[in-house]
Specification:
The chain is α/β, with parallel strands linked by helices. The protein is about 30% helix and about 15% strand.
């Protein structure tokens, strides 16, 4: 539904949130009961991919659909080339944007990217003594837990202008130490009982009890955040985009693509109906889709050219993949490529089916197709590495 005023956007990016342990058909069982219930009221993509296997790829992929340069776009630091993003285009149209994070936003040059895109950074340096840090391990702590981060957001974000805000959570990160640890370890045991686990399954999951309890904690923190937001005047015109930055690697993975398999939930009181979508899309498709939406619905000016790697979210209900993506697992590991219903990982070819299941396959024709498409991407990416501009000067957002 369209209102007179342009909508607000709130991105909730959950550290390590993988489909392996979230929502229906999660092969490890779902430990996100609130997000599961929210997806029933949302647009929910069950076969969704992050662009990277670590957090460094999230911001440039999700908010600007950018290529990876040599070691990830953020690694370029102050030498990041001018680019078009969801953030800087919305800013030009009167939006504000804040990034709220319980850790140090200078990590991986996140703050440099955000400031370049006109976003205000609120990280652990902005938290007062009124906020409680996460428990530390051997004297080291990342910063502030999810409950405190959402509390900080609610206490500092009360703008009247339209906004596009980002919250990046932290509690589901190694060493997985959370407040009320004993409470959530108990909820972990109860959740396994609710899921009907056998004793063997329970024993297997207990090897990762801190990881699973942190997931339950993060899920509950999001539940409380949405509840508080529902009492705000701007809630009725806000669109929430919830996803994982990548799948948590500390719980063993089933396949090469598992590292990238995350949920996408778009929830809003504006939605006319809910829908579960089985077609494949990725972080790289979010910005092209939201800007197209704003162009068509709110007449925002949309450039005829773009530098997107993604082509937009596919909303087909049944499983298919119409996209071609390079996926960067680590800063030094760009060996994965997805196109059609296939994945090329190194020199190995796999077919992809629903729930992102992989099966090895021998198909020289298809392998050469993916290798050639991957080569074309690398050639373009190498031009960027060698200093070529990403967009013409006339497209630079000022």
């Amino acid at each position: 539904n369209k209102k007179t005023a342009a909508p607000n956007f709130v991105f909730i990016v959950v550290e390590g949130l993988g489909r392996a342990f979230s929502n229906k058909d999660a092969y490890l069982g779902s430990f996100t009961p609130f997000l599961d219930s929210l997806s029933d009221k949302s647009l929910y993509w069950s076969n969704f991919l992050s662009a990277g296997g670590r957090t460094f790829a999230m911001l440039p992929s999700m908010f600007a659909s950018l290529p990876y340069e040599k070691n990830g776009f953020l690694e370029m630091g102050d030498k990041m080339p001018a680019h078009v993003s969801l953030l800087n285009i919305l800013k030009k149209q009167g939006y504000s944007s804040d990034f709220t994070y319980g850790g140090d936003a200078s990590f991986d040059n996140m703050s440099s990217f955000l400031k370049m895109n006109g976003t205000t950074v609120v990280d652990k340096k902005s938290f007062s003594s009124a906020y409680q840090t996460m428990p530390s391990s051997s004297g080291f702590g990342w910063g502030y837990g999810d409950e405190e981060v959402f509390r900080k957001y609610n206490e500092t974000n009360n703008r009247t202008q339209p906004y596009c805000n980002i919250v990046l959570t932290l509690s589901t990160h190694n060493p997985f130490l959370i407040s009320e640890q004993d409470k959530y370890l108990g909820l972990f045991e109860h959740r396994m009982q609710t899921l009907g686990f056998t004793e063997a399954q329970k024993q297997e999951h207990r090897f990762y009890k801190n990881q699973y309890s942190s997931i339950l904690y993060a899920d509950n923190a999001i539940r409380n955040f949405i509840h508080v937001y529902s009492q705000r005047a701007d809630f009725s015109n806000t669109i929430f985009i919830i996803t994982g930055d990548h799948r948590m690697p500390e719980i063993p993975m089933a396949s090469k693509i598992d590292r990238y398999h995350v949920p996408l939930i778009i929830y809003s009181p504006l939605l006319k109906r809910s829908k579960t979508i089985a077609s494949v899309s990725s972080h790289l498709d979010i910005t092209p889709t939201l800007l197209s939406f704003m162009g068509h619905q709110y007449h925002f000016p949309i450039a005829a050219q773009a530098s997107w790697l993604g082509s937009g979210l596919d909303t087909t209900e049944t499983f298919r993949n119409v996209h071609a993506y390079p996926l960067i697992q680590t800063k030094n590991d760009l060996v994965d490529f997805v196109m059609d219903n296939y994945m090329l990982s190194g020199n190995d070819l796999y077919t992809i089916s629903n729930n992102m299941n992989l099966d090895p396959v021998e198909n020289d024709v298809k392998k050469k197709e993916l290798q050639y498409a991957f080569l074309l991407f690398r050639q373009k990416n190498n031009r960027l590495i060698n200093g070529a501009p990403l967009i013409p000067d006339k497209m630079v957002v000022k």
